[in-house]
Design goal:
Helix content is 20%, strand content 31%. The protein has 14 helices and 39 strands. Helix 7 runs parallel beside helix 8, helix 10 packs parallel to helix 11 and helix 11 runs parallel beside helix 12. The structure holds (2R,3S,4R,5S)-2-(hydroxymethyl)piperidine-3,4,5-triol. (2R,3S,4R,5S)-2-(hydroxymethyl)piperidine-3,4,5-triol (DGJ) binds next to loops.
Amino acid sequence: MAIQFYENLSPEVKAVFKLDTPNTSYVIGVVDTEQFLGHIYYGQRLNDYHLAHVLRVKEGAMVPSVNNRDRVAFLDSFPMEYPAGGLGDYRESCIGIETAAGNMGLSLNYVSHKITEGKEGLSKLPASFGEKNECTSLEILCEDSLTGLKAVLSYTVFADVDVITRSVRVVNDGKEPLYLTRVYSACLDMDDRGFEAVSLHGSWARERHIQCVPVSHGRLSVESIRGESSHQDHPFMALKTKGTDQDHGEVYAMHFVYSGNFKVTVQSDPFDQIRMTMGIHPEGFKWKLMPGGEFQAPEVVMVYSDEGLGKMSRTLHDFYRNHLIRGTYKDKKRPILINNWEATYFDFNTEKLIAIAKQASELGIEMLVMDDGWFGNRFDDNRALGDWNVNEEKLPGGLKYLVDEVNKLGMKFGIWFEPEMISPDSDLYRAHPDWAIAIPGRTGSLARNQFVLDITRREVLEHTYESVARVLRSANIEYVKWDMNRTLSDIGSTDLSADRMGEFYHRYVLAVYELQGRMMEEFPYLLLENCSGGGARFDPGMLYYSPQIWCSDDADAIERLKIQEGTALIYPLSAIGAHVADCPNHTVGRTTPFETRGHVALAGTFGYELDVTRIPEEDRNMIPEQVAMYHKYNDLVREGDYYRVASYSENHYFDCYGVVSKDKKEALYTFVQVLGRPNCRSRRIYFKGLDPDVRYRVEGEEEVYLGDVLMKAGYLVRDLHGDFKSRLIHIVEVK
Ligand code: DGJ
């Protein structure tokens, strides 16, 4: 049994839950006559459950039932499993309430539990999944005796991967309505071992750069209140012990399966204990729970690694590939696409698109994606969002004609939408100005000259769904790029009463999930790629609906190294939308070799974002070779184990990463020389992930090396002269 319950362990520790994954254990204790839930242990797998002695309950006056005089001291230092606020625990709390009388404290104490095989889904929310033989779940019921508020803490451990998922369901079993002012999904209390916090930050075109800072006294938080997971911050944090690198050291990671406002905090308390929490951001959140009402908080994915960040990455990659990503394309090679955004922006018509498709199909590209600008009066980005009718001036003969022509070339067809938005200059806004999110009486803040539709309203959601579905039903469309180009602001909904306005942000995210869930149910063959002005809604929540997400609007091969390094720290390469774009690059003006652009895009979904009829001939001539490269390596890239070998963020000169097949018979390493260095003719790299006892040959070379040698003594990358040069190193087993 992967989850065990042991009782009568000591006078203070009444019971223990031990949750095991293949290599990790997580232990929770029920403590004292008040049945507090304490966190005992998370780390390398343990064989024994006798751990009650490490829980600090017996110290001095710390047992509240023995010495109630110092109850506050107990609450403020005890390692809680799911801490509630207001009664004496002054660290970040996981749950907050406001009763009808305006009172705020609560205490959630153990009542009962249930252990089952398999895993239930979460109502209206994306969540990881597993069959009965793949995972075991635990539900711990806790209750606040005064208000009758119940919290069900849910945990699942997986048999094939070192992940524990957590979520919380809150039920108002009292007689009075109350407000939830905060409901986090997970907490981890443990001793501070001099941790450093790893998180991901950026901006538009610069998403998910890795940051590592020491954890110290005071609270460190990473958060978004933008209504989406955001370009700027990411719902992820890992705590690592000092000196931890890719291959060594301990890591505790939390990743949020959610696409809206979030907050992750870590703090070191006066007793040198760490508290790490993750959940929906409390700012702008207030949820009314009527008697009998429930609130489901989203899921957190937790990973412990004792082999550095690299093992954490591989664990998350495996987990998302096997237990979160769904649908037709889950384990499938994706069609190589060509997207017309950077090729034409708004200046296109049927003729131009067919010319691009014709040339692309001859080169081996498999799908044309028509981006922004095909509908309403959308000749620039100032208008027409919401008017999802084909612009026949641009597309004479309509959408079906275009799609059929593209299909005749042997290519699939994909289309862009931004369903959640409304332009003030649109027929939709003229007909329904109240459909935009707005504070009555206040001039709304525009972003990219657009407002956000209030899809928390049923009629708006239904209209939005039908606008998209009608188009998808009208032609053979096999791919959708679902974009979202602004953050939420000016929160106000005509459908929500004053006492429910604090529910808006979360209801908005639920509405997005409902829309995408319905779309994938009606059109299950679709390849959905989420996008948000590049990668502002790149999160595990969206990954549940779309197996790939557009990573960044910056397709410059060099900028992409950092962006993709940060993204691949926690997401499988199969999820990372990556294209070869034209040069000089539209975002940074840099010119890089076409070959390097291809090599960098290979570490993602792979596609093109350029006018293939107008790029230099020598670049165009390389496309069939790149197409062949994609077909040769994509299985390995999509399914293999990812290893970070060197980071140019650290060494300033070169980047190197690899994917190794699960059976270790094959590996592909990508080496990018970002800057040439004078008087430096070769670079030694130490491959990772190979079988030390297997003999390998580097494709194109005669010599045979033992895996051990390639990893310990290394391999020399020679003869790369100049900046932005790259090389693929393909290694195969020799029998
Ligand atoms: C932002 C996306 O990231 C781009 O790829 C493109 O689709 C534009 N929006 C279109 O407005």
